[in-house]
Write a structure and sequence with these properties.
The chain has 377 residues and is of the alpha/beta class. Helices cover 41% and strands 22% of the residues. The chain has a nine-stranded mixed beta sheet with strand order 7-8-6-5-4-3-2-1-9, sandwiched between helices. The mean pLDDT is 94.
Length: 377
Amino acid sequence: MSGIYIHIPFCKQACHYCDFHFSTSMKKKEEMVLAIAKEIQMRKSEFEKEQIETIYFGGGTPSVLTSEEINFLIAEVYKNYSVSENPEITLEANPDDLSSERIIELSKSKINRLSIGIQSFFEEDLQLMNRAHNSAEAKKCLEEATQYFDNISLDLIYGIPEMSNEKWKQNIETALSFGIPHISSYALTVEPKTALNKLIQTGKIAAPKDDVAQEHFAILVETLEGNGFIHYELSNFGKENYFSKNNSAYWLGKKYIGIGPSAHSYDGISRSWNVSNNALYLKSIEEDKLPNEIEILSITDRYNEYIMTGLRTIWGVSLDRIKTEFGSEYLEYLNKQTQKFLDDDLVFIENNILKPTPKGKFLTDGIASDLFYLNLE
């Protein structure tokens, strides 16, 4: 199983918390679509023996593309790669782009999964985050999208300053009221070069609090699991048969090609990433050069990545795989590092699989970093 990720580096406006690569100028949009199509063609030899099972439009805001542009890029993938009979094809979209007409258009395309950036149903939260949509648009687009799409995910952000537990519960309950089968939810994170960081530094808004985020996370897990969702990855919850195939492939170490500015790729032994600059990307593609850097992953790199991704998922970290793939020295190190977390009831081992306990889930990334091996080679 392999996937193609297509990064669309445009947004109508900059959300205060976002540090992903994008431009708010649409001047080069048509040129960028053609360049992305060309990169799709240029890289087909990388997946000659692979079958594509997922195509994912991320960003940025892919829904700023016209339906014709989206269909054109999907057609380029089909033209240049072997695509499975029923691939998962996801479009990230913002509510303000999902008019009734647009939803109907998309439903007639090969897009069969929408990932909608709701973030919150409260006006004050959306304004604080500088989202382009309002609460009414969020609800309206979900009402209409669910009439045409069965497979929908929505994003919610928790740990927002001044968000009470009760308000957070209301956000979750509102999301559930639409019958959505997948929810991704993330803590509001303050990245260095963002407007959010500046607002906090200048005292205009309060900084998010870790203890509040932890409470919100506990409410999230309890509420969604109580409503039939499976907590299959730290930030992702899905009903049976509605896990994100694209994201699951990433966490399970499957191969993928990232197309577009700043997109990352992985082939099992190396990782590469495209330049995070639209102008440089366009120039490079025009000159028939791939605008990427490549890193060959050492055995330690691969071990650390497996620890990070495995610990975040319901599939956990297989101790048998650690020994087979990385060797007994890595397994001994892992067992030694794991002991303190076992003692604190933050992780457990069952059927030789290491997983976080409910108590340890919120701390997964910190636990994983303590299990990394940096100097073995």
